[in-house]
Amino acid sequence: MEQLEKEHILVRPEDYDKNFSTLNLGPTHPATHGIFQNILTMNGETIIDAEQTIGYIHRSFEKLAERRAFYQITTLTDRLNYCSSPINNIGWQMTIEKLLGVETSKRIDYMRIIVMELARIADHLICNSVIGVDSGALTGFVYVFQQREKIYEIYEEICGARLTTNLGRIGGFERDFSPSVVKKIKEFISNLPKVIRQFEKLLYRNRIFMDRTINVGGISAERALNYGFTGPCLRAAGVDYDVRAMNPYSSYNDFEFTIPVGTNGDTYDRFCVRQEEIWQSISLVKNALENLPEGSYHMDVPEFYLPPKEDVYSKMESLIWHFKIVMGEIEVPVGEVYHSVEGGNGELGFYLVSDGGRTPYRLHFRRPCFIYYQAFPEMVRGSFLSDAILTMSSMNVIAGELDA
Amino acid sequence: MSQYNIVDPPEGYSAPGFFATTLDRVVGLARKNSIWPLPFATSCCGIEFMATMGANYDLARFGAERMSFSPRQADLLMVMGTIAKKMGPIVNQVYEQMAEPRWVMAVGACASSGGIFDTYSVLQGIDKVVPVDVYVPGCPPRPEQIIDGFMKIQELVGSESLRRRYSPEYRVLLEKYGIK
Amino acid sequence: MERLLIQNSLQEKFMDAIISFDDSSDIFTVTVKKQVIVDVILFIKEELGFQFLTDLCGIHYPDQEFQLGVVYHLHNLPLNTRIRVKTFTSLAEPEIDTLTTVFSGANWMERETYDFFGIIFTNHPNLIRILNVEYLDYFPMRKEYPLEDQTRTDKDDRFFGR
User: Which residue in C148, C154, C160 is closest to B119 by CB distance?
Assistant: First the structure.
């Protein structure tokens, strides 16, 4: 194995005259936020080619999913894009609801929108502040992480966990939003704009930042579509494809929000698209919270929704349902379904093939990072090493989602 | 004044103008309050580490102000996150590059024992490739737990004998992992 | 876009090479023979406007005659329609033509399918393992292989109900 590694780095005989050097960037490198390796062939400081090796955190989710009952897979989906776990959890629950044919009420949809948009804010905050860190601006990171702590507190009130939330149930939520959740969200939404404006003042029109990011790592819209880009990277290239607008799920079509679109597809456009999406998410959370209708926090799906503990300890029927659900002895319809949600990085898809057993026959995750990271060599060919670092961090490659 | 804990000085003999104690206690005291960690952040536990480093749960109070990303300049290897079989030799290589005295902290369930990923591609715990001093369980552990693990490392550092790294038992331990 | 329109235009162009149409799931599904898969997808991309490759994955049915399958999801962005194309091949001859000439994004997705199922994509620019270690000598997602690493010593299977 070590021999194979060395073969990658040795200069090939036909390149001796060309004066190219090979630089091994990773897998453990402070600038690659995650574990993946890039072997760059360079002529001085210009990059001629890049070769990627991934799989350093391959945890075989798809094989694991064939062994786990539906509720146990929610913990796996947490760990895909771990910066915004609720989006993955809710996407998975919506996939099962699509298979079962369960329709959720407006209240559940609006609650889901609030949680998902908070997760999107958290994800974009990390990505943008890390672009700042990689170009030398560490202050923004520290300001913004404090707000992420507030989002963690909100998650803790809703589901009990900070990062890997394992949130929600098939058909709704496990408990209603308590008054302290609503108070915390209102406080957060009223304080966040001030902090974001401070953060933007540091970087948006900063001469150094603009010089380092404009026309760096660009990709055209045709090439991006050919590669299968989705999310902020595609929207920065000029294509306004957002799953929330194209195939609305969870009542997103009740709300008005704009889809920010860039022009060149370079790093500055990706930064600006993400910033603007944070503003859109803030207004979505505010609208959803103000118009939250009354109702129950879960649908009536007794075969899949764990009954409340008071009923389990007192009623026989709830005890039986609880046992059957936890053991996974439920009748599941046979069929296949594909459902996608707009994750922090783009279209996160779940392709579920069920054969009626307690576990899926095949579950495939369509991971946006994995698909658009292939275009990285094309984006950095001909630019400098420092540009490659910024391109990589602006693409927001999360290693958990890349390798799954 | 009463709400603050004043740490006692190490055992020794003191009189006006001087304080006499053993060398390893003084060296331990100096080392434990200036540990330079290497954050080997692989996955979700890495994000909790970023929160620990942030302003709310500041790890810099404990002397870990300077995160070293180069193993040559680090004292403590904090492995945070799942280590796949592909990554095992790299953890070993990073550990070998560190200079003595070095400590290892396995943060999270995946680094301690493979966690929820009992599969063919995940290393079931980094103690298969490097000797580990402190294990911090959790998935992911809260920042308070990471700080607790860090304080246990500080205890280990402060009470370590100066001759430990040259002792035959330590040689045997490193031989077991194939580290020279 | 009407499913009948897609069905008729595909039927007209490819006649026998189409094995079946399936309208029962949420997305219209077409199963074709593996010899024409690239032509079918090129036709769907150019003529019917499905310009976006959403997903490419493999699947293994050990009970069928043609055990290994590849499932393609495509998306027509202007008209907001999706289509699913499936093709199957036998274990003895697991070769299918590569899609990288049509979509550049199929590169890594085909490598992942090769890594997990052992389906060999002919004329692929770089068909080596992508996620697993290079020295792994079997294809882990096939149904006959277990999930756990059988050489591990610290976990006792008796306690895990296996």
Answer: C148
The Cα A351–Cα A68 span in angstroms is: 16
Tell me which chain C residue has its CA closest to the CA of residue B116.
Answer: C148
CATH number of B129's domain: 3.40.50.12280
| CATH superfamily label, A61-403 | Cytochrome-c3 Hydrogenase, chain B (1.10.645.10)
Q: Which residue has the tokens 């009407």?
A: C2
Domain assignment of residue B7, yes or no? no
- Degrees to nearest 5, angle at CA C57 with C150 and C54: 145
Show residues of chain C in contact with B85, CB under 8 Å: 133
pLDDT tens per residue, chain A (404 residues)?
455 555 555 666 676 666 788 888 878 777 667 788 889 998 888 898 899 999 899 999 999 999 888 888 999 998 999 999 999 999 999 999 999 999 999 999 999 999 999 999 999 999 999 999 988 888 888 888 889 999 999 999 999 999 999 898 998 898 899 999 999 999 999 999 999 999 999 999 999 999 999 999 889 999 999 999 999 999 999 999 999 999 999 899 999 999 999 998 899 999 999 999 999 999 999 999 999 999 999 888 888 888 888 989 999 999 999 998 888 788 889 999 999 999 999 999 999 999 988 889 999 999 999 999 999 999 999 899 988 989 998 999 998 888 87
Number of Cβ within 10 Å of residue A317's Cβ equals 11
- DSSP for residue B9: P
Neighbouring chains of B at 3+ CB pairs under 8 Å are: A, C
In a domain, C158, yes or no: no
Question: Nearest Cα to B136, choosing from B96, B83, B78, B87?
Answer: B78
* Residue ranges making up the domain that contains C110: 3-139
DSSP summary character for residue A189: H
CA A109 from chain center: how many Å? 19
CA distance C86 to A162: 40
Against a cut of 0.90, is the pTM above it?
yes
Tokens matching residue C75: 């998306």
The chain A residue lying nearest C26, using CA atoms, is A337
In chain A, where the domains are located:
2-53, 61-403
Q: Which two tokens stand for residue A385?
A: 């090493």
The ipTM assigned to this model is: 0.94
Question: How far off is chain C from B2, nearest CA to CA, in Å?
Answer: 48
Q: What is the dihedral of CA A130, A131, A136, A137, to 10 degrees?
A: -70
Cβ atoms of B115 and B82 within 8 Å: the answer is yes
User: Hey, are the CB atoms on C147 and B124 less than 8 Å from each other?
Assistant: no
Q: Which of A129, A127, A125, A175 is nearest to A155 (CA)?
A: A175
Is B5 part of a structural domain of the chain? no
Angle CA(A86)–CA(B48)–CA(A156) in degrees, nearest 5?
A: 45
| C161 lies in some domain | no
Total of domains in chain B:
1
Give the DSSP H/E element, type plus range, for residue A387.
Answer: helix A385-394
Q: How many domains does chain C have?
A: 1
Is residue C146 included in any domain, yes or no?
no
CATH number at residue C115: 3.30.460.80
Q: Has residue C160 been placed in a domain?
A: no
Option in C59, C73, C131 nearest A362 (CB): C59
Residues linked to residue B19 through DSSP beta bridges, in sequence order? B14
Longest dimension (CA), chain B: 64
How far apart are alpha carbons B112 and C123 in whole angstroms?
Answer: 43
User: Phi and psi for A261 in degrees, rounded to 5?
Assistant: -135, 140
Residues of the domain holding B144: 13-158+170-176
Contact of A364 with chain C, judged by CB distance below 8 Å, is answered with: yes
